[in-house]
Amino acid sequence: MFGMSIPFALAVYFMIWWIVLFAILPFGVRTQEEDGAVTPGSVPSAPSRPLLLRKALWTTVVASAVFASFVWLRASGITLDDIPLPGPR
Known about the structure:
Distance between the termini: 38 Å
InterPro entries: DUF1467
Number of helices: 3
Protein name: Conserved hypothetical transmembrane protein
Largest sheet: none
Number of domains: 1
Pfam families: DUF1467
Oligomer: single chain
Transmembrane segments: 6-25, 56-75
Keywords: Membrane, Transmembrane, Transmembrane helix
Structural class: mainly alpha
């Protein structure tokens, strides 16, 4: 698979998926206090409806796009040496 083993590809995808999950989790969250229905025994800042399945699906879609970009970048042969970065002269 473009010069990488299956375990390496799965490990990279797993890391990308978790990073994207933590980026997506805050989107669309409404607290119990905002909805006006605080469940007794919980903090008012707890989410009223976390929508975790929807967020997991969006995470999978976004992580798959990021992973596909990663695979394309690896297959293209572009390295950090090809990117003009400022440095000592």
